[in-house]
Amino acid sequence: MNRIIRNVVLYLFIFIVLIGIISVFSNQNNQAEEYKVSDFVHALDNKQIESMEMRPSNGVMRIVGELKEEDKTFITHIPNSPAIVEDVTNKGMEQDILTTLEEERPNGWVTFLTTMIPFVIIFILFFFLLNQAQGGGSRVMNFGKSKAKMYSEDKKKVRFRDVAGADEEKQELVEVVDFLKDPRKFAAIGATIPKGVLLVGPPGTGKTLLARAVAGEAGVPFFSISGSDFVEMFVGVGASRVRDLFENAKKNAPCIIFIDEIDAVGRQRGAGVGGGHDEREQTLNQLLVEMDGFGENEGIIIIAATNRPDILDPALLRPGRFDRQITVDRPDLRGREDVLKVHARNKPLANDVSLKTIAMRTPGFSGADLENLLNEAALVAARADKKQIEMIDVDEAIDRVIAGPAKKSRVISEKERNIVAYHESGHTVIGMVLDDADMVHKVTIVPRGQAGGYAVMLPREDRYFMTKPELFDKITGLLGGRVAEEIIFGEVSTGAHNDFQRATGIARKMIMEYGMSDKIGPLQFGSSGGQVFLGRDMQSEQNYSDAIAYEIDQEMQNFIEYCYKRAKDILNENRDKLELIAKTLLEIETLDAKQIKSLFEKGRLPTPEELEEEARLEKEKAEKERQEAKARAEAESAKVERENDEVRVNIQSKQEDVQTNAPDSSEEPNPSEAEKEPENEEEKKND
């Protein structure tokens, strides 16, 4: 509030100053025309002047008057010569048009303001520019001060329970928090606290959320800063801010420093095209020294997050700086379901919404994607004035996230609709025939985004590696749309360009990275296919000959031709199903997995009774799985409780044994018995 008041006062002062400038320098006779002396003398001699005033002004005579015919005001200045003034005065008096005034004396305040206003304006401009250059700071030399923000206890805390789908990652960070809270447990077995933890993973997987959860759980000061906050336009500012950050951290130790997007400051040194030494490298050098140099940083843990670990400097990644690297990957099926449970806490879901089904339909989605998905579903439901989010809203949200909003107003010709219908039908048939091809969950000919239609092809389960036959099935499924166009119409369209791009990419990786070519053998060629890092990757050379490159091209062509022929054979054998699905698409435009399965197996769409029965069975299955999960959780909880009871019993029994075996200090030894023992010993020796 004080800052707002100061700004209001400042702007009010500036406004008053501007008004003063305008009032001082404005001329009341700003509409008067400046007359030459010769024109004035001519008008005076010809009696063309209605009236005029004459007064001394700055060494000359200032005359302001009005003309008779033209009805306008004029102004002129004549020399303050006695002869000239007397002549003008006589003529004016003869015509009875002259009024003589005394010299106007300037106001003292006006003179003062006129003198001081330029200095005030210069001071205000200087203060404003200095304030902007300092990023809003009020001190002159705060360029090198750290911009790290200490976590406030008053703000809403994020706990580990708010982070789902990353159980192993949480466990790694729980150890860090436990070490800060009670280091004796770890120190008892010689363990030392890790100096740095690097969170690595794709965007949206929850790296920053994990760091916020650490801040909420740790109970120690938590400094948060972005990697880009270190680098400024002034040389040396970044290194100074690093020093200031660690100085503040040492004063508040034990504490945690979180650097988000550390790749902005931690890029590999000497990787520029010119090989120059820039300000960012100075900042990185200072960060390296502070993390593990001659100075001691006891009790300071650095947590950093990045989605580009490949470009970080090796010196930053070594043990002693970042002792622990935690990969935060996209969640699996169970993880996605847990993430959906977290984000669905404050959303009213209808009874037909199954989070497990949503998790199965969203492979490859990150935590941020799933949060956005449920938000889109809520927006769709709100747009339809619903009180709850239904499964149909979630389906629409999935389509919007994957392919964009539906273009229902787009007008396409009947020929294009037929091409799209048979193209998507080709993908669908191959997905139903091949066991390892991506299963078609939904197919539509409604345009979305830039696509005329699309098929939602999902893997049957989460896979972490794939075999060669499975990859061939995947390529075959991608080529099914183009093959269907060729079989039905005898010509092909441009609609398969994305399918070819993905199929060619899989074939290239099979040969160059996975070593799945029988002709070339188990070899790897080229780089890993990551993003290009300017300077380092531009200087890399091809690590295989032109002859090998030719063989790679030949093998890629052989793989694609094999899968293309395979897709053609499958669609020719199932042409009746191809046409049935395409004709049904032309009628109802969209088919889901249940309808596709019924068309493929029964040759017709499912009846309402069959859909109700299937929904009932799915509901019973979901309820059974929920009960089993609840029973497993209760059994696990009981097991943990039993183990805790056993530990408590063992500890109690050990304490009782210690108390039983301990000597009673209240009893004093009998002196006679103490004296008899040495005598007995001597008797034994004599015997």
TrEMBL record:
Pfam families per record: AAA (PF00004), AAA_lid_3 (PF17862), FtsH_ext (PF06480), Peptidase_M41 (PF01434)
Residues that hold Zn(2+) according to the record: H423, H427, D499
Cofactor note: Binds 1 zinc ion per subunit.
Keywords, comma-separated and alphabetical: ATP-binding, Cell cycle, Cell division, Cell membrane, Hydrolase, Membrane, Metal-binding, Metalloprotease, Nucleotide-binding, Protease, Transmembrane, Transmembrane helix, Zinc
Requisite cofactors: Zn(2+)
Membrane topology recorded in Swiss-Prot or TrEMBL: Multi-pass membrane protein
Subcellular location: Cell membrane; Membrane
Binding site for ATP: G201, P202, P203, G204, T205, G206, K207, T208
Disordered: region residues: 607-687
GO BP field: cell division; protein catabolic process; proteolysis
PROSITE patterns xref list: AAA (PS00674)
Compositionally biased residues, Basic and acidic residues: 614-648, 673-687
Domain of life: Bacteria
EC top class, as a word: hydrolase
GO cellular component, one term: plasma membrane
Main location class: membrane
UniProt GO molecular function: ATP binding; ATP hydrolysis activity; ATP-dependent peptidase activity; metalloendopeptidase activity; zinc ion binding
Catalytic residues of the enzyme: E424
Domain AAA+ ATPase: 193-332
NCBIfam families found in the cross-reference section: FtsH_fam
Purpose: Acts as a processive, ATP-dependent zinc metallopeptidase for both cytoplasmic and membrane proteins. Plays a role in the quality control of integral membrane proteins.
Protein family (similarity comment): In the C-terminal section; belongs to the peptidase M41 family.
Oligomer status and interactors: Homohexamer.
UniProt-recorded name of the protein: ATP-dependent zinc metalloprotease FtsH
